[in-house]
Automatic annotation (TrEMBL):
Originating species: Paraburkholderia silviterrae
Pfam families, per the entry: LMWPc
Protein name, UniProt field: protein-tyrosine-phosphatase
An example Gene Ontology molecular-function term: acid phosphatase activity
Family stated for the protein in its record: Belongs to the low molecular weight phosphotyrosine protein phosphatase family.
Any one Gene Ontology cellular component term annotated for this protein: cytoplasm
Cell compartments where the protein resides: Cytoplasm
Enzyme Commission number(s) of this protein: 3.1.3.48
Amino acid sequence: MKKVSVCFVCLGNICRSPTAEAVMRRLVDEAGLSTHVSVDSAGTGDWHIGEAPDERAQRAAAKRGYDLAPLRARQIAAEDFGTFDLIVAMDDANVTALQQVAPSAGRDKIRLLMEFAPHAQERVVTDPYFGGDAGFEAVLDQCEAACSGLLSVLRPRLAD
């Protein structure tokens, strides 16, 4: 069985991308694929390097049984495009920033997370940072739907 690596990316790596990382890790573990699918997250900005995820994201995630506490923010680097098979962005601004960091051969690895949730009405995962608790719940809803779809897309790749 092949291996696949995925890196979720948002602006600061303290709200959306660590949430997606935790959701995807659980789905991968539950599917018995943790030795075949590696998951990470990063931010396009450098403001929060080394910090734990936003407390509001941690609280919302904990209500659903996800533990974000061990995660630490880091900034995406050009080298990540050689490490990861997919670089999954939360919104269009993330995609633009990733295209600037990516070597030309790595740009085809960039995708929007919500592409993997075909029945969702939203194209992007909205940044909840400046909003209330409902925004963090919405991020979890979107991540759960899209990560489930992403795992379905990855399964055939693992078998190749």
